[in-house]
Task: inverse folding
């Protein structure tokens, strides 16, 4: 029989101990702290950014990543776009009885790798096991802590004429997941863009001025993220439809399935609102990073009195965009 | 560049726009008003709105959306019945995604699904046959909504179930045909039109000759058009050219896929499995022979015969979908539009169906 | 259209692929373009016509390029 998770792995007894000792502590490299109920860390600065996110993506393994990589990158990116340098993560696992331990090892390994890559430590964790049928394989919650840098990126100084820059092609993650689920019969080479963006964003923040605010357009896609932002900051953004970078294969998949790439999830993209005078410098820095090579200016802030997102079509008309409303999409994050 | 790419090329689209505007000016010069066209196909409605062409041509051509969205033209009683159908245990209700959020008198399929009913969205009707095969202890019902493009595919599903000897599978047929709807509109005479942009995909199945009745019986012109920006514009241009010539006719501007007689194989399948029936349309009542239902010898696969659904009278609302379908009003003229009725809280099907006129206007034609 | 079996064929749309039914287009060959609807190929695209119609349309646009009558 295969090695699988049993309810006993969650009972707090010997099996739980072994799971923590052999798997989690090993992968996340901190045998020194096992005897404490809480992790103890030191932060030099005062302002700490905290974020939490749960990951229920289906399937757990997909082209370009897995739920483990996603759970680290997702939380790291939330910190990074807030202008914080990510330092620590905690990880909570909810496992379904019968889940293969081999699969869990793979997931934990990719969490460890992504954490190393992003330069964060996973310092505390928890595991619960629920009966078969009560969860779908494996769910992960991560909470991230980072220290805020000196540059404020809360959008308070956004002004007319600011540019909107997107760090690369949109919709890759959404299409990779749809394809990996095999339900719709779509075959594609498109890989999820799942990646930690903190190093690239750190560089942007340290080498440029004039970044007003950043967001990672995950669930709901670029459109929903920008509608949210426009709403929050009471600004009008006008996007140029023909400037928005979309991979050919993603366009094809959207054609077949009737999806709009503007509403598909991304897991390794950042959208930046910045002073127009810094546009070139930002594009240059992004362009040098493998994660930002296809960065482009996709629109501008046209006014700061009304919160709305407009899309300019190639024939010169504009239309207002809304948040994603009940499109039937699979679980993507 | 390949022809297929050129149909959506921005430069060619812009040049085409200018050409359409020029010929529209000629029309105005001659008739002292803008031409009024109806697009009969929901995909055209969407393509016109999404590309921005409808808005761009607002001052030059009046484009009215017709009864071309299959979910929208389905009468409320039938919608309610389909939702109720999915609310019994031991059933799996399969549907195109379009139906999920359509408001019923009580609630939508989405709500019914959240309440624990097994309701699944499939990409193709054939997928629902597979689900029937995998769940022999359950009854699988597919909601067979659609026009002539979709109807042949429904027959493929029944053929597949027949071939595999699957007994727990049936289709709830509420199909609609384009010709009887166009005739009903013209006979009613409520909407004043100069010509039709005829549905490209329906024509793929039915063929160009199907529309001979328009010039012959109604003195009306039509152009069969594709869906890319350049195709939409070229279709409009040619329709106006026909009108300026003053001789009613049909032009097939989509000859790359539409033949004179249509798809013989698809027509044979429809004929083998289905027979005409007087379907009830939203806002239009029963139109004789306006839909197709299963022939008696395929009763085994006829969900309407297999399951008895008794329904109350539908809830009355201020929704004006019925008039929108007939081209009598624009979505913006309905008091509910963008107020009581939005994609998140729809009152009528036109606001949520992917081909609905209100949905097109809400998603693609608002600036505020 | 990439590969073909009796009832199904693999089609490519801008680099993404999908298996579709081909019962309505028995004449289809590898390399043809097809029009898709709900997982079925509804017709084979006649590329010659497509090219001609673009050419013809370009000419119409050019001719009508003069002053409005």
Result:
């Amino acid at each position: 029989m295969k090695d699988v998770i049993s309810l006993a792995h969650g009972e707090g007894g010997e099996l739980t101990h072994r799971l923590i000792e052999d798997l989690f502590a090993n992968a996340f490299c901190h045998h020194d702290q096992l005897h404490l109920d809480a992790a103890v860390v030191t932060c030099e600065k005062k302002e700490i950014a905290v974020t939490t996110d749960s990951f229920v993506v289906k399937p757990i393994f997909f082209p370009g990543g897995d739920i483990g990589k996603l759970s680290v990158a997702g939380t790291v990116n939330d910190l990074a776009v807030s202008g914080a340098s990510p330092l620590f993560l905690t990880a909570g696992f909810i496992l379904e009885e019968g889940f293969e331990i081999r699969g869990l090892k793979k997931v934990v390994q990719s969490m460890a790798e992504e954490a190393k890559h992003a330069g964060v430590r996973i310092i505390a964790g928890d595991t619960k096991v629920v009966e078969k049928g009560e969860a779908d394989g494996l769910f992960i919650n991560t909470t991230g802590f980072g220290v805020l840098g000196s540059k404020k990126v809360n959008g308070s100084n956004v002004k007319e004429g600011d540019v909107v820059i997107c760090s690369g092609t949109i919709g890759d993650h959404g299409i990779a997941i749809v394809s990996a689920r095999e339900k719709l019969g779509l075959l594609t080479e498109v890989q999820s863009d799942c990646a930690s963006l903190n190093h690239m964003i750190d560089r942007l923040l340290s080498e440029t001025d004039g970044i007003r605010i950043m967001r990672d357009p995950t669930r709901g896609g670029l459109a929903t993220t920008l509608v949210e932002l426009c709403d929050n900051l009471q600004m009008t953004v006008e996007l140029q439809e023909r400037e928005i970078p979309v991979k050919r294969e993603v366009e094809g998949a959207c054609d077949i399935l009737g999806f709009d790439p503007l509403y598909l999830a991304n897991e390794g993209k950042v959208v930046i609102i910045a002073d127009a005078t810094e546009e070139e410098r930002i594009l240059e820095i992004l362009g040098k990073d493998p994660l930002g090579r296809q960065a482009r200016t996709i629109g501008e802030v046209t006014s700061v009195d009304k919160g709305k997102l407009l899309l300019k079509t190639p024939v010169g008309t504009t239309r207002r965009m809304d948040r994603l409303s009940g499109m039937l999409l699979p679980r993507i994050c | 560049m390949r022809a297929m790419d050129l149909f959506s090329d921005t430069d060619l689209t812009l040049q085409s726009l200018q050409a359409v505007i020029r010929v529209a000016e000629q029309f105005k010069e001659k008739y002292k008003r803008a031409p009024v066209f109806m697009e009969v196909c929901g995909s055209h409605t969407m393509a016109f709105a999404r590309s921005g062409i409808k808005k761009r041509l607002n001052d030059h051509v009046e484009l009215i959306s017709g009864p071309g969205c299959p979910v929208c033209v389905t009468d409320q009683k039938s919608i309610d019945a389909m939702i109720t159908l999915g609310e019994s245990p031991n059933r799996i209700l399969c549907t195109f995604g379009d139906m999920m959020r359509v408001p019923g008198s009580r609630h939508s399929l989405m709500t019914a699904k959240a309440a624990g009913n097994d309701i699944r969205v499939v990409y193709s009707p054939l997928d629902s046959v597979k689900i029937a095969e995998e769940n022999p202890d359950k009854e699988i019902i597919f909601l067979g909504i659609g026009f002539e493009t979709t109807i042949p595919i429904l027959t493929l599903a029944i053929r597949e179930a027949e071939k595999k000897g699957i007994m727990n599978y049936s289709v709830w047929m509420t199909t609609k045909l384009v010709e009887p709807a166009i005739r009903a509109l013209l006979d009613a005479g409520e909407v004043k039109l100069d010509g039709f942009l005829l549905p490209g995909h329906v024509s793929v199945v039915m063929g160009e000759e199907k529309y001979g009745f328009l010039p012959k019986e109604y003195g009306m012109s039509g152009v069969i058009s594709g869906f890319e920006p350049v195709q939409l514009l070229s279709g409009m241009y040619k329709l106006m050219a026909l009108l300026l010539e003053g001789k009613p006719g049909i032009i097939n501007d989509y000859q790359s896929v539409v033949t004179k007689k249509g798809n013989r194989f698809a027509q044979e399948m429809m004929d083998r499995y289905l027979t005409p029936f007087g379907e009830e349309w939203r806002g239009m009542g029963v139109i004789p022979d306006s839909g197709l239902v299963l022939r008696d010898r395929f009763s085994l696969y006829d969900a309407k015969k297999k399951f008895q659904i008794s329904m109350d009278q539908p809830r009355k609302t201020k929704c004006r979908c019925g008039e929108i379908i007939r081209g009598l009003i624009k979505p913006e003229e309905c008091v509910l539009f963008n107020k009581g009725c939005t994609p998140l809280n729809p009152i009528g099907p036109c606001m949520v169906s992917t081909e609905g006129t209100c949905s097109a206007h809400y998603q693609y034609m608002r600036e505020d | 259209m990439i590969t073909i079996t009796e009832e199904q064929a693999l089609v490519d749309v801008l680099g993404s692929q999908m298996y579709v039914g081909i019962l309505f287009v028995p004449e289809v060959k590898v390399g043809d373009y097809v029009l898709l609807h709900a997982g079925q190929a509804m017709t084979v695209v006649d590329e010659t016509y497509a090219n001609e119609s673009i050419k013809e349309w370009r000419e119409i646009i050019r001719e009508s390029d003069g002053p409005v009558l």
Observations:
- The radius of gyration of chain A is 21 Å.
- Chain A has eight helices and 14 strands.
- The domain at 7-148 of chain A is CATH 3.30.1330.10 (60s Ribosomal Protein L30; Chain: A;).
- The mean pLDDT of chain A is 91.
